[in-house]
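Write out the 3D structure for:
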Amino acid sequence: MTVEQRKRARKVINRGGRNYRILVPSAKNDTMIHCESQLEAAAANLFEKSKIVVRYSEQPIVVQYELNQQIREYYPDFLIWVEDTPIYVEIKPEKQIKTLPIKEKLYALKKHFIDRQVHFMVLSEVTIKAKNAEQLFALKADLLLMEADNNDAF
């Protein structure tokens, strides 16, 4: 799995009958970031403002993972670089994260990435839209990286 890719792995599409995509200008990447939802656009703005994110890209790769004995495809919403460390990021509303099918999917994805020594995090509006979003995001990224160092999981 290549962690450094500028090209999107798939075209950003309109989901659920929504007739819009959101383009977010990025000075860090010198391009427009294509987002499928307002929450993804808010995340892109957070990455853009964050002092710890060096660069980021949307829909960076396709990942094949196993869930319920079936091989499935997954497209991470973003790949961010915290200094020289790549982290794949999934953006989901908190309400969806709490549903059983999404919990199972995210657990399978986390296992997939851990098995490959790759960092992965899920962000919801709880972090992205908080008043202190930049600090919360930095703390979450730091904790992810410390956990990996302490557990030799990555």
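The chain has one domain: 22-151.
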